Amino acid sequence: MLKKDKTLWSETYDRELTDIFAIQNDVAEQIAVALRGKLTFDEQATLQVAPTHNLAAYDLYLRGWALYQLYRQEENEKAIDLFKQALASDPKFALAYTGLASAYVERVARFGSEESWIDSAINLCRQAIMLDPKEVRGYTELAHALQYKGLAKEAYEPIRKALELDPNDWRANLFAAVELAGTRRYEERYTYLRRSFAANPTDTHAPNSLGYLWWTLGDTDRAEKWIQRAVDLESNAERHLMMECERLVMRGDYAAALPLLRQLPGDFFAADTWVASALLVDCYYHLKAWTEMLGVTDKMKNYQFGAVSFLPRAIALRHLGQEAEAMQSAQECARLAQLDLAGQNSDSNYWNEWLLACSLKFQGRSEEAYEYLHASFAHGDVLSLLIPDTPHFEIFQSDPEFQGLVAAREKENLQIRAKIRVVEGNYH
Question: Are both 87 and 180 inside the same structural domain?
Fold first, then answer.
């Protein structure tokens, strides 16, 4: 555990293997005390409860969790088998249910399995909570599954419960930060991410997200430092490569990023940022390789990205002089965005409002486009989700009205940056 770039504790333990839970409790107590200074009565009571008395089941769980965190398909399937073995050894072992749930979410989120596995994950988490309502992981993994399913409002309560049980839990803080993605609540999001990283300085998600947050706010030096930390921590070759590609794209070094991106699957993503095909589109756009850009958008349709894949396609077709086909793609983008908009809640409308605004403006329907553009800016922070200097900006970039909206956001970001620097100062 690092704080102020110094070790918070360094202890050795000379006990029997059967005392593993006592050792874990001692370490957890030292972490909490080091981070916050004291434990509440409820936290002290929670630490005294062993997750299982079956050491074989616990060993299987730990091995499964280690494989899960490699974020590779083969290892994820092995983790699923280990979690199932743990449950066979102890059917009342709540943590094993949550581990299996996490791996099922990964099946869908990263490896493209059927959406029904998310429902299975939700059910497993609810079983875990029934078995052990004091186990924080049941709530964090339930929130994770609900967030991926697009049920942000339903995920709110599990996150709050997880934070109540353990305010310093790294996954509780991580998913609390995910909950704020696409909002202007940067200070809160930064606090959650920073706390998550303090509790687990070996995980790459928090430093990666911290880097992108700084980049969004215009502080490239701090962004580079955080992204470099994530890259240094990442042991998975594909994720490591993807992070390097993301950084090159954000720097505007498209020629250097291009050959590296070609090595990755088009639907690959490293954390909570962009997929490889979206970065490829951005590179080809800035290198004016319109035919290649069009080819990527053709493949994007196979990944079922929906409306978002039709907008860069329209842009590429227009640059190739195929105006009729370009208009058809823009119209299809608008159609799909409207369908998604009709089926979503207000928490996530802003993204489809942005796509609808872009596609309408592309078709020359400026008045309608700006209605949706203003709605998008009002309902969320769409600029934080876009690749820096995205091709989307071409559609609006010559308009003073759009330039004024972006300038106003940049001015607000200066004030937010100052507040977040105060938060960061607490860790130095």
Answer: yes
